[in-house]
Every structure is written in structure tokens, then in C-alpha cells.
Amino acid sequence: MAIVRGDGDIVYHPWRVLLQQAKVCRLIGDWSRAEKLLQDNIEKAYLYGDPKIIASAQSQLANILINKGQHREAYELVNRALVYYRERGDKEGIASTVNLLGNIYYHRSEFDRAMECYQEYLRLSEELQVGGDVGLALTHIGLLHYERAEYEQAMACFRRQFQVAERRQDLKQMLMALGNMGNVYLDLGQDDRALYHYQESYKYAQIVGDKQAIAFSLGNIAIIHERRGDYMSARDGFIRQLRIYEELGDQVHGCESMVNLGMVYANLGDQERSDDYFRKQVEISRSYGDRSVLSFGLYNLSRSALLRGDLSSSQQYIEEAVAIAREIKLNYYLCGYLNQMARLRLAQGRISEAASSAREALDRAG
Questions:
Q1: Which partner for 41 in 18, 121, 217, 224 could form a disulfide, CB atoms 3.0-4.6 Å apart?
Q2: Distance CA 66, CA 312 (A)
Q3: Residue 165 above 80 pLDDT?
């Protein structure tokens, strides 16, 4: 049974009720419940027998799986939905699914493929005049520029995203844009500007009640504490952040918390605990294919091994980190990785190779 409004929209049907329940569960942080509801939603969609409803249900479930790092399962669902939408020329459906496909490629560090998806998502969203999707597309394109240290292009995307969101009074999009602008300022060494943007983002996250967004902001503010040498406050912020990600089942972003906790404990002189976090992060990142975060964990394990005098392990870690950074064009991180390679080669007595790595790092730094 369904109740149909005067404009023809279906107000009630089991699949629609389950979808709305799942959206609420996701917002409040009960991702396991959201996943179960969306699994049930697909079953109800098949009973309803409408291919469009089935494709929509597949996309919604894929979105949760992406956040949980289950990219293979998500990829299969997204592609099934995308085939349906492309066959029928459904621009709205294509837009939503190419965005999800871009997210999968992004977390696999396949950045060129991700950019193609996000550019298509932006073009379709502008054609459809869907402001929220335009903002989200700009977020993702900006993040890709940010990963490649293309800060001017990244900031242009985030500022435009904020303007679009502000016109629509979309607090979720506003807090995302503020946090991302803060990241750019942080990398440019403008810590006060970064902190202002992080605090504004945190304020909106609390208003919205989005636990994942709150976790993002807590981690960003903790990074400022770390840069200012307040390692205890940084540690507390990252631990709060990691707990939220663990509650959500968000392994993707939980790995970033582990990286930061590893760095903080190293600064506090607790190298054993630091290495534990890096090893766990590397294991998880490798399991779901996030090579960007994986490379940074390997770099830190290389540094730790070098300090212990374990040159063989240090070399193994840093060679893999450099290879990943070259392949996926992590220019910002590659400079640091090459400097670590130079330090290792000096310790090994390979003077000319150390000089070569140091020169390349300097050239890439511009």
C-alpha cells in the first residue's frame, strides 16, 4: 500500500520509510543500524519491483559501505546502479552514482579516475541546478587539488562551495567548506586562520549534530595543539576523534586519527605506543586500499626504525612510501619521504645516493 500526494509523489512505501530511518541513523552515528536498514531496503525494493527504486537502494547502501572501507562491495553496487541510470539517461541518478564512484576511486588513491567522476558530477549538478550537489562536487574536486598540494585551485573550490552553501543556508556544506579551508591555511603555515576556520566548522557541526563532522573538527583543532607543542591536548583531541570513528565503524578516517596519535606519542617520547598506532594504521589502510594514508604510516615507521638502528626495516618502509607517492602524485608528502630516504642513505654510507634524494626533495619543494 502507498499514499500518493496530489503531485504524484509516493509518501509512504516500506522502502521509503526504511531509507528515511537509515538517514537518521547515519546522522546520529549508528552506522551499523543504518547498514542493516539499507540491506532490508534493497529487499523491499526488489519486492516493489521498480528498477529505479532498486538502483536507488543500491546507491544508498554503497554510500555507507564506502565510509566503512568496504570498497569492493560498494563498487559492485554502484556499478549496477550506474548501468541502470546510464541506459535510461537519468541525469539525476547518474550524478549521484558517479559521485559515489569517485569516492571509491579517491579512497583507492586512483585520483585521476576520481577527478573524472567528480567533474562529471559537477557538470550534471550544474545542469540540474541542484545546489547541494554542486557544493559537494566542489568539495571533492577541491580535496583532490589539496592532496596534490595545488592550494590555489583547492581554495577556489572550497570558497565557491561555501558561497553556494551560504546562499542555501546549508550548514552541513558550510562546515565542510570551513574545515577544508582551514586545512589549506594549515599547510600554508597560517595557523591562526586555520584555527578560526576549524572552530567555526566545529560550531556548525554541533548545531547539525553530525557525529562524523564533529570528529573531523576535533581532529583539526587537535592538529593546531600539536603544532603549538601542546601534545597532551592534542592527544586528548585525537583520542576523542578516534572513539567517535570507532563508534561509527569509520575505518577510513579512523586511520588518520591513528596516524596523528602515532605522531603525538612520538613527540611525548612513547615510541612503543607510537609504533603500535602506526602498525595498526598501516595494516588497516593496506586492507582497504587507501594508499595515501598507507604511505604516511610507512614513512613514520621508517623514521622509527632508523632511530632504533634497524636500517633494513627503515629502507623497506621508506621505499614503499616513496613508490606510492610517486605513483599517485602525492607531491606534498613526497618531499618529506625523499628527505627520509636521504637520511637513511647517509646512515648506510651511501653518500651519493643520499645527495641525489636530497636534491630531488629540494627541487620538488620549489
A1: 18
A2: 35
A3: yes
